[in-house]
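Handout, page 2. Input:
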Amino acid sequence: MQLGMIGLGRMGANMTTRLTEHGHDVKTYDPGVESTAGSLAELRDQLAAPRTFWMMVPSGKITEDTFQSLLELGAEGDVIVDGGNSNFRDSMRRYEEAKKKGIKFVDCGTSGGVWGLANGYCLMVGGDDDAVAQAEPVFRDLAPQDGYAHVGASGAGHFVKMVHNGIEYGLMQAYAEGFEVMEKSEFDLDLHEIAGIWRYGSVVRSWLLELLVNAFEAEGGKLEKIRGYVPDSGEGRWTIHEAMNEDVPVPVITAALFARFASRQEESFAAKVNAALRNQFGGHAVLPEG
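Output:
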């Protein structure tokens, strides 16, 4: 089928390549790299109606600006797919705004990262049946076998992807803590070797563990070249917020998010307060700055 891909970053470019390899006619627009179109309006004109646009741009203002532009440029029957990590409540709002203009909106949670080109992308799709059906040939060829599902109504795709990423935080933090315990132990352990054998037969084997083996191979067994600074892109926070709204306890995901916050501090003021209090009530020694 024909598709207009908006955004040719690490994900969008690889998705375009994968779709082209599967025989789809993909037109592209990205102001930062060579594309088939020089503007969204030109991209629209390169597509036959009813058109399908796929937004693969960073969440937030860029997504909102692109969506609003497509609402102005699009026509009744067109489909807009948001494949980025948007908040599901924004996706529900965009669905309603598009519906008023006769334009269909689909939210597609996308997982697979830079490996998706070769392995395929896990796709969690939300939206009306007819809208999803219009873009389904693309979903099926982007995903590996059994890696795509229409999970529910508008917003459901990005909601499921949000929880997916919250779970990812917890899994990553568990690996991080376990390997630090081993790294600090009295034993001279080869962490690269241990991660390697855990991939086979172990109950903790996973794709994340395979990626950790790759990291040890690339960066060395002690990861000396990597600074322990861990950003977050928002989905963990959103998951915790929704869990609070639902009265669902998520202590593991919450602790994993807070561990990321802690990783960004050169010096924790909270730790200074703790040290000062121990000194005041118990006469415990404090270490000087520097």
